């Protein structure tokens, strides 16, 4: 009986895994002249893949690392026995917890025409120092710092890393700022070209898939990783990790130099321990630009 139930669960896990990109068309009431609500359908981008499960339904295979979805039950002509299946599942199970610290870059010169000139302001440099001190005070053994290749993120990383000696730094274009998905509700002051959502959205989704997942089965100890990037990227990642509607990313607000802490358990469950924390900064050092 247990073996038969395991096979049934495997089928469910594989089916759920096909919906790893959790986008759905969202109908939003939009008032008409007469006062009635006219649904506005937000179509998912082409790269988004299959639709997500219904609201409130947790997909345990969101990162495609659920053990039952990793075991190839058809690899051999004969179905594996219960003991063999259990052994193979144990081999694929994550054993460690990942602590992911998402840091927004510090305040920068927003009016510079070229990206390379959008350097940190004097206040921004102070903010990065405070964030570095805060991370160091946690007393954690950080494994690595992954940062966006944009100037403001690189400078923020350089300052923070001084407080975390010995922690390796890795630069990536995947974490660069962009427009992840059309926000709902929309805002009037920020309207990128539609093509930007497809270009940036696919890249930011790739960043999520690449960096946000449960620990590898070979990882024996809990890990503590820092990702220094941008507000839009962090807000989108938080929505995706918690399986909230990703179109709601713009409803979240993050201060410069803030710390967002995600925890990914071995069973794939995700918890948000902090969102945009800047409680370690004096009030006159806090900004959101």
Automatic annotation (TrEMBL):
Alphabetical UniProt keywords: Hydrolase, Membrane, Mitochondrion, Mitochondrion outer membrane, Necrosis
Localization, UniProt: Mitochondrion outer membrane
Organism: Odocoileus virginianus
Protein name, UniProt field: Serine/threonine-protein phosphatase PGAM5, mitochondrial
This protein's record includes keyword tRNA processing: no
Lineage of source species: Eukaryota, Metazoa, Chordata, Craniata, Vertebrata
Subunit comment: Dimer. Forms a ternary complex with NFE2L2 and KEAP1. Interacts with BCL2L1 and MAP3K5. Upon TNF-induced necrosis, forms in complex with RIPK1, RIPK3 and MLKL; the formation of this complex leads to PGAM5 phosphorylation. Isoform 2, but not isoform 1, interacts with DNM1L; this interaction leads to DNM1L dephosphorylation and activation and eventually to mitochondria fragmentation.
Catalyses which reaction(s): O-phospho-L-threonyl-[protein] + H2O = L-threonyl-[protein] + phosphate; O-phospho-L-seryl-[protein] + H2O = L-seryl-[protein] + phosphate
Gene Ontology molecular functions: protein serine/threonine phosphatase activity
């Amino acid at each position: 009986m247990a073996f038969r139930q395991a096979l049934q669960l495997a089928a469910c896990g594989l089916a759920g895994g096909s919906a790893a990109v959790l986008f759905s068309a969202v109908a939003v009431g939009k008032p008409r002249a007469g006062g009635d609500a006219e649904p506005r359908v937000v179509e998912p981008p082409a790269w988004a893949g299959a639709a997500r499960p219904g609201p409130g339904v947790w997909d345990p295979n969101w990162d495609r690392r659920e053990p039952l979805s990793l075991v190839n039950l058809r690899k051999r002509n004969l179905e594996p026995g219960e003991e063999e299946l259990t052994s193979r599942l144990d081999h694929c199970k994550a054993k460690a917890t990942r602590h992911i610290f998402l840091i927004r870059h510090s305040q920068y010169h927003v009016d510079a025409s070229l990206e390379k000139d959008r350097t940190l302001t004097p206040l921004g440099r102070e903010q990065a120092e405070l964030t570095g001190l805060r991370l160091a005070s946690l007393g954690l053994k950080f494994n690595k710092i992954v940062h966006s290749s944009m100037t403001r993120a690189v400078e923020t990383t350089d300052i923070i890393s001084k407080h975390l000696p010995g922690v390796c730094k890795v630069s990536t274009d995947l974490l660069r700022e962009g427009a992840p998905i059309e926000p709902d509700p929309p805002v009037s002051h920020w309207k990128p070209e539609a093509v930007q959502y497809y270009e940036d959205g696919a890249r930011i989704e790739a960043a999520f898939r690449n960096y946000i997942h449960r620990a590898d089965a070979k990882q024996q100890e809990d890990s503590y990783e820092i990702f220094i990037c941008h507000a839009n990227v962090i807000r989108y990642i938080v929505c995706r990790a918690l399986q909230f509607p990703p179109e709601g990313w713009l409803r979240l607000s993050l201060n410069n130099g803030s710390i967002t802490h995600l925890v990914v358990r071995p069973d794939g469950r995700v918890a948000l321990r902090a969102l945009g924390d800047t409680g370690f900064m004096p009030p006159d050092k806090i900004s959101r630009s």
